[in-house]
Each structure stands twice: as C-alpha cells, then as structure tokens.
C-alpha cells in the first residue's frame, strides 16, 4: 500500500499574494469548495490578522467546507494566534500555522535577534497555539538557507512543544533538488521524535525548481507538500499541485500517492485562472492548453499508432476529453451544455440560457469556436452595480487621426464624449477621461491572446493608479479595442468605488 502524501493547498493565501489576483469572500468560498471536491487535505484560507477581509474569508471558508482541514497563517505573535483561533472557531478541523525565520539572514537582519531567542519564540508560539487547537503547524521560514544543525534543534524543540506538522520552506527558491533532499534527510535522521510530526515542503519557484525540490523532499521523507493550483504565488510562484500529484501517479515505483481526484485538475485550474484573471501559459505542465497537443508530424504519427509513444499521462485522467464536437452558430443548447460539462462547468436553466445567448454572439463573429472561447464565456463575471457602464463606442482609425466617440452611463444618466489619440485605444481612453475628470494614471497595459487566429479572444489587463490606490482592470473580447476600453472602465470603477 502506498504512503499517503498530504496535500496542503495555499492558493487562497500564498497564491492570492500575486498582484491583481485578489478574490472576494464569495469567490474564495467557490475555490475552497472546488478544492474540497478535488480532494485536498488542508486549505490554507488566509492570514486573519492581516485584514478584516482575510479574517472573514477564513471564518466563512471554515463554515463552507467539511472534509479538509482549514488552516490560518500567523506570525510567532500571540495576537496573531488569538485572531487566527477566533477566525477558525467554526472549522470542523482547524489548524494554526505559526512560525518564524530560522536562517541567519532572517535572525540578524529581519529580527535583529539571536538563534537562542528565535528558538525560544518558536517554542512559545507553538505552545500558545496549542491552547486553541490541537493541530498546530510550525514553519521555519527560509529553512532553505538555514544551517541544518540549528534547524534540527528548532524542529526538535517545536515538536516537543506540540507541533503536529513542521514546514521546511525554501522561501527564496534558492535550493537545488539534491540540496533540499539532503536537508529533509538530515532532519529525518537527526531530530529526536521526528516521527511524531509530519515534515512538510513549501518550495518557491525563483529558479524554476519548486516542483523538483518538493518531489526531492518527498522522496527524502516529507509527507506533506504545500502547493497552489497552477503554481501561482509570491514572485515566480510556488510548487504546482497538479505537477506533484501527476508526477507521483506516473512514478508509482515511489510508493507514494495522494487522495486527489485527478479528473478535476483541469476544471480546478481553469476556475482559479478565471477568477484570478491569470491566464495559464499554453505550455504549462499537466493543465496547459498545449500539454497534450502534438504538432510534429513524427509525434502525431507515433501518438496515432500508440498514445503512450509520446504521452506519459492520459488526458482523461486530468479531466480533458478527446471529444471532437465542433461548435458553430448552428449548434443548439444541448451541444453547448455537453461541451461545457466536459470542460468542468455544469450549467442549467437561466445560467445556460444566458451562456447560450453569449455563445451565439461569439459564434457569429468567430469561424472556429475553441475551448478557451467557451471558458472565457462562462468565466466572465457580470459587471453589475458599476458606477460607470459603457453603452456605446465608435472609433475611426487608419491614415486619418484616430478618433473615438464614447458614451457611458453614470448614475442613471448618459454622457457622450469624443477625443483623438495616438491610436483607437488611446483615443477611447482620452474620451473617457474627459467624462470622469478624476486624475487616474494608466501604469501598466497588457494584451494577451487567449486563442489562435486574428478574430479570436484577447485578454486585456490594466493597472491604474488613483491617488495612493492601485487597482487592476480586466476584460476579454474578440474586439481588442472594446476589450481595452472595458478593462479601463473596470479599473476606473474599482478606483472610484
């Protein structure tokens, strides 16, 4: 029988630290419920003391899920721990995740302290957390650069103080796989009582080795992996949940497995991508658009003769389908519903009717409807209760001076403005600026092609600054000028909210 690896998902905590990827409580609950269906063991729901929003999210997620343990992050500070315990009071299974930096860099420069003082703070934090919950996880921040002998002393002390899980983070993504494996192996061999707790990996991707390091740590003895959907997270991201899970499924000789329902990996990936407005790169392992695509004639020939010639995973095992139904403007609701179900979206009644109306508009403009078109269609949120709404846009461009006429609805009345610019998008934004008058600076402007072809979908991301407030606006449309205007208005609405 395979050893169990516990999956600790921190999409809603570490993953949400990516600029522009913040979710509201309702969206976090939606992701948490999907993670429960996926089969994760622990959901790190937030850092309660950091904000009222994080506190509320942890509390509401604790009410919304029943199977996973709900975890709240804290520093080694009594107030943090008290707030976390309060946020977790409705959890069926609650865990407090407390800790402190153990590398000399952190001890000297972050805490202006000594090794002995940090060890005492670590033990005190675990003991204090134990007053509120039985399940306490300790993190030794920057363990990747920590001295192994000192790290072992800390780990041994916190286990004696009652820690049930000890997290060994490669916080800066510095370690090489062999180096990280050796660190875990050293702890397994030199920490008295190490088998009374579970060692956990938490690896960052600064050098592109987060998944490799986590797998190396697992082989060396760690039995919990901290990861995120799509590998999102601080800086270059975290260990990708789907990569670790499928690596273990492919390498059964390791004798280690998880309780993850892998057929839900793709739908979970797409849900997180949609809600966080963060596209999954096409060549992303396991869940990327091209993960099971073959363009080389040699590869195509080999796959047609025997799939395993070039595929080490079955697409169906991760929730993809080989179904070849082609959707066009002549397709009915039944065909749309069938394809969306294969993509992980079950729509009924009014939801299906609204999606079908949008689908018909999209199908009239696009000759070839791709899965990504459908995902954008069902993932796009309705823009309700907005301060400003676009009702009309006309642009003139080419060899003449680019000119745009924009009409928006503000507080029940419509206002129209015309302006010129360096191009159709610049002219449209200038027209909106003459209407709203508030000084809002466009700091970042990014256009990404979501699908193939000149008439398919484009995603626009804008970062706007209003006073001291920085906001992000997003929009998806087959008309890139319209998408840019809608993204700008989305950001303006957030700035003026």
Pick out its properties.
three-stranded antiparallel β-sheet; 497 residues; 16 helices; alpha/beta
How would you portray this structure in words?
By secondary structure, the chain is α/β, with parallel strands linked by helices. It is 39% helix and 20% strand. It contains 16 helices and 16 strands. Strands 2-3-4-5-6-7-8-9 form an eight-stranded parallel beta barrel, surrounded by seven helices. It has a three-stranded antiparallel sheet with strand order 11-12-13. Helix 8 links the parallel strand 8 (198-203) and strand 9 (224-227). The longest helix is centred in the C-terminal third of the chain and has 17 residues, at 349-365.
As a percent range, the share of helical residues equals 25-40%
Helical segment count: 16
pLDDT < 50 runs, ≥5 residues: 380-384
Shape: globular
N/C terminus separation: 55 Å
Tell me about the biggest sheet?
8 strands, parallel, barrel
Q: What portion of the residues fall into strands of 2 or more residues?
A: 15-25%
Strand order of the largest sheet: 2-3-4-5-6-7-8-9
Helix/strand-derived class? alpha/beta
Query: What average pLDDT do the residues reach?
Result: 89
Question: Rg to the nearest angstrom?
Answer: 25 Å
Tell me the total number of β-strands: 16
Q: What kind of assembly state do the chains in view correspond to? A: single chain
